[in-house]
Specification:
By secondary structure, this protein is α+β, with helices and mostly antiparallel strands. The chain contains six helices and four strands; from the N terminus they run βαβααααββα.
Length: 116
């Protein structure tokens, strides 16, 4: 049986949708609340390799817009520090099932994660 690890925050609508999607298919979801426990550097690197750091950012989020981050130029290490402190800047949820990963509200991506 497949287990999906989900990195998200409790207030995320997309995370609730993903959790519902997997539970409807009787897939076990291991939830990691990013407000309580930030992602390990190696874990986030895996997502960066696939989507790039800029691809992980939710440029339409309230935290991003209110922080004026659209106009800021920062190094990758500065961005990593900032998202470690404020996970609302990310396109959540981050999902992992074995070697397959997916980010955001992407039902087609979720289905692909479950495909053999």
């Amino acid at each position: 049986m497949t287990t999906v690890q989900m990195f998200a925050i409790k207030s995320s609508q997309a995370a609730r949708a993903a959790e519902r999607f997997f539970k409807e298919r009787r897939i076990t979801v291991q939830y990691v609340d990013l407000q309580k426990k930030p992602m390990a550097a190696g874990e986030i690197r895996r997502f960066i390799e696939r989507y790039t750091l800029q691809g992980l950012l939710d440029t339409e989020s309230k935290a991003y817009v209110d922080g004026g981050l659209k106009y800021m130029k920062m190094s990758d290490s500065e961005w990593l520090e900032k998202i470690g402190k404020n996970p609302q800047l990310l396109r959540l949820p981050f999902l992992r099932a074995g070697n397959k990963i997916c980010i955001g509200k992407d039902e087609e991506g979720w289905k692909a994660m479950l495909a053999a």
